Each structure stands twice: as structure tokens, then as C-alpha cells.
Amino acid sequence: MMIDVYNMHGWIQKLWKSRISLSAQREQEAMVTEKSMSSVCSTSTPTLSSSSSPSSSSKPPQPHSALSSLQRWSRKYDVFVCHSSVHSDIEEAVRLVSYLESSPRSLRCFLMQRDACPGGAISTELCQAVKDSHIRALLITPDFLQDDWCKYMMHQVLAEAPMSNRIIPLVLNLSHSQYPQELRFYFYTDLGKNPDRGYTQVNTTVLKYLEDLLKNEKTLDGLS
């Protein structure tokens, strides 16, 4: 199946902006709710002295220490997300990337319709993105298995890092019997059962990999 990058670019941009707008709206609503609760608490509880009361303003979530690894910055992306060109698969990929890139996770993701260079050869762009990424997430759906580019990239990913912890298969609307034989030695995450849990597992896996990079980095520093 040929991927029409140009015709889909505008659609992707609109979808991405709507995700960002929705996320900002939810954050604003959460802040309003938090302020309201704070106001209620301050009028209903006795005032404590400043020396004994905890700080009323909560600290913003801090980025994970693994994100500071120098080895992490040796590659352009933390996660390469491979998916088919069907709209439903693109939407799922956008949701995943939006989750991974938002604070405090702040991961760097490659999303083809957003990050590929206009005018570049598809095979060159995708293969370079694989090489430039620490982790490769495959969004495996029935349409993924019918997409020649997706199958090509799956084999490319396997060739780049066979039997490694750098491949994350994500299945959606796929029965166990349809699961690719090429990936039978890899555990997969079923996004159809609990997408939020699946996104969290992806984030945890990426951080674990980056933590290992940081440990190796410190070990090398100790030996030098």
C-alpha cells in the first residue's frame, strides 16, 4: 500500500493540533478544579504557622533521571513509531506519541507524517529514522499486516536489532493467530484491552532502556 504523505499532511496537522488543544483544555480544567479545592480547604481549616505548614504550592513533576543520559542524545529519537497509513491507525499512533511526548515523560518520537522530510524517498526516510531511534514501537493491526511498507519496516527493525530489548510490538484489533511469526519471540502489549496501560508500559520500557544506558555511562566513567 503506497503512503500518500502529502495529501495526509494537512489532516495530520489538524489532528495533532486538536490533540494538543484538548490536552491544554484538560490541564486548564484541572488547574481550575485544584484552585477551587484549595480555596475550600483554606476557608474550612484553621491557619497554621508558616514555620510548621507544608508548602501550599506543589512542585511540578520532575523529569526522569534517565532522560539526562549523554548516551540518550547520541540518537535523534527515543521512539520510532511504525504504523499503517489507514486513518484509524494514524489516530492511534498520534495518541501514543502525544502521551509519550507530554510532560513529565518528554520523550522524543518519530511520527512519519509529521517528521519525514518532504520530498525525501520513503525508504530512505524510514530507514534513517530507525537508525536514529533507541526504541522501535510497531503498531500491529490487520491493516499493518496488509501494508507492504509496514512489513518492510518490521523486517528492517528486526535486521537492525535482532532479539534485542529495543522492539516493542503493540497489537490492536488483532487475534493471537494473526500475530506475525517473525515476532513470536517477543512479548507484545494489547492496546485493545487497556490503551492507557499500554501507553504506560511503552513509557516504562523506554525509560528502562535509557536507565541501562545511564548505568553503562556511569560504569565507563568509573573505569576511565
Order of neighbouring strands in the sheet with most strands: 2-1-3-4-5
Number of helices: 7
Oligomerization category of the chains in this entry: single chain
Question: Which overall shape is indicated by the principal axes computed on the Cα atoms?
Answer: globular
Give the integer mean of the pLDDT values: 81
Tell me the helix content: 40-55%
Spell the H/E element sequence: HEHEHHEHHEEH
Which structural class is indicated by helix and strand composition? Answer: alpha/beta
Contiguous uncertain segments of 5+ residues: 32-56
| Gyration radius from CA atoms, angstroms | 21 Å
The total count of strands amounts to: 5
β-strand percent reads 5-15%
What is the CA-CA span between the terminal residues? 51 Å
The major sheet is characterized as: 5 strands, parallel
Written description of the protein model:
The protein has 224 residues and is of the alpha/beta class. Helix content is 52%, strand content 10%. The chain has a five-stranded parallel beta sheet, with helices on both faces. The model is unreliable at 32-56 (pLDDT under 50).
